[in-house]
Amino acid sequence: MQTERKLDEFKNEPFTDFSLVENQELMKAAIEEVTAELGREYPVIIDGEKIELEQKFESINPSDKSQVVGIFSDADSDAENLVTRAIDAATIAFETWRNVPAGERAEYLFKAAEIIRERKHYYSAWMVLEVGKTWAEADGDTAEAIDFLEFYGREMIRWAEEQPITPSPLPEKNNFEYIPLGVGAIIPPWNFPLAIMAGMTMSAVVTGNTTVLKPSPDAPTIAYKFMEVLEEVGLPKGIVNFVVGSGIKVGEEMVKSPKTRFISFTGSKAVGLHIYEEAAKTREGQKWMKRVVAEMGGKDAIVVADDADIDEAASGVVAAAFGFQGQKCSACSRLIVDEKVHDELIQKVVDLTRRLKLGKPNESDTSVAAVINQNSFDKATNYIKTGKDEGGEVVIGGAADDAEGYYIQPTIITGVNPHDTIEQEEIFAPVLAVIKAKDYDHALEIANDTDYGLTGAVYSQSEERLNQARLDFHVGNLYLNRKCTGALVGVHPFGGFNMSGTDSKAGGREYLLQFMQGKSIAEKV
Ligand code: NAD
């Protein structure tokens, strides 16, 4: 492995322009290639060994339920034993990996980025079929995965440089350096199945830790494809152990093990809080307080003031509410609008929503596909019903059909009041609640009045109002006169306040510090 080379400055991976016929052809070919690979069996991987288990489960295409994407060895069948083996393998691998120079560790990430970049559409196509991403959404996920690898690789090299300390008045040589923590449990969600999964795993790895990765059972195939990339770049065995199973069984074992040093989690508020609590208990044989990095849900709002550019606001709202079926933690699920421009804005938002095409994501012109699974479908239909029961009016959408896939029409519910259920709880589907505010101050007050604090946006042409939002809109990622989704690695470090998580700021300059500890060394001279 090469350790020293001149690195270019980090730049975001460009998105693919699918209006170009040649790019459309490439994507179609990738979908065909992946379709031919559907239904294969995948093992768990512990210490580099591929282990087939008797019990299996299937990952299916949510937009076409008859299609089996991958068949997985189900670690739930022997969770305690398999997790123990995986953690033991990671513990042994840590003794070597922790001393591998930072630059050398980073090279594995750069190589992985190179491979994914070369076969970009192949990975995007897996996301089209496994989680229902449209072409553009899948392409964005793949680009973000490349960005995380390139960014964290560079960040590690930066943290490995000599760190500034105050000169000692004593005859001493002093230095301060960052060392890894140990074995980490990596527990990602399904909704950015390549970017977030790879980012969470490789940020831990590049900082010198070893890991057990449990991907979401809704997106295991794309995670396995990433494991193949790690094999191809020659990452030594035992550094990323791959155990597929449920959160309740495999995830719990990973969190509770006394040998787990830290937990990197992204997912729902309920699971995040549970993990936080479990991780705080010290168990027999445990020598440390576990560190938890937890990025959780949101109830993100776009505030539209009476002086906003209404066309801009309408297109921002529709993109943020319905992109990837509203299944982004950053998705706009509340539109809070000054009553003076309410009717004009809603008319425009409804018109734009009417133009969205609900369909299969493997077709190039689809804008909204199915939600991830039956549970998500049921949850969304129940929330739509609750919205109506609590006095809301469905002005567009509302219908759902789970015959072929889990399809929920993009839905807008007006007449929602602050503190209504659908104004407070994360729905994670294409369902937008519209709340009228008396004025701008009232709108900000409503926006802040949930347990969450992830993303938010304000549309206004007044500098004073935008400044007020800078001070008072309490979210980790605030957007002014633009939509609240689409954070870019390095550009918009990402993470939320309050019950949205520990504000880890993925893709930011402090992110890697969470997987390291500082060691101060003084030598008398
Ligand atoms: P989830 O909480 O259901 O699951 C997340 C992961 O936790 C999965 O791998 C799951 O198997 C595992 N898990 C479940 N129960 C567990 C347990 N008891 N112990 C250990 N692990 C357990 O979330 P999801 O449905 O996969 O993802 C959607 C959620 O993620 C939404 O709430 C969304 O807002 C959030 N999210 C947040 C961010 C962010 O950066 N803040 C990014 C993406 C998604």
Would you give an account of this structure?
This protein has 525 residues and is α/β, with parallel strands linked by helices. It has 2 domains: 21-296 and 504-524, Aldehyde Dehydrogenase, Chain A, domain 1 (3-Layer(aba) Sandwich); 300-488, Aldehyde Dehydrogenase, Chain A, domain 2, CATH 3.40.309.10. It contains 15 helices and 21 strands. Strand 8, helix 7 (220-232) and strand 9 form a beta-alpha-beta unit. Helix 3 (102-118) packs antiparallel against helix 5, helix 4 (120-131) packs across helix 5 (135-159) and helix 10 (310-322) crosses helix 11 (342-354). The chain starts with 20 loop residues before the first helix and ends with a strand. The structure holds nicotinamide-adenine-dinucleotide. The site of nicotinamide-adenine-dinucleotide (NAD) has 34 residues, from helix 8 and helix 9.
Give a quick set of tags describing it.
Aldehyde Dehydrogenase, Chain A, domain 1; 2 domains; binds nicotinamide-adenine-dinucleotide; seven-stranded mixed beta sheet; 525 residues; five-stranded parallel beta sheet; alpha/beta; Aldehyde Dehydrogenase, Chain A, domain 2; single chain
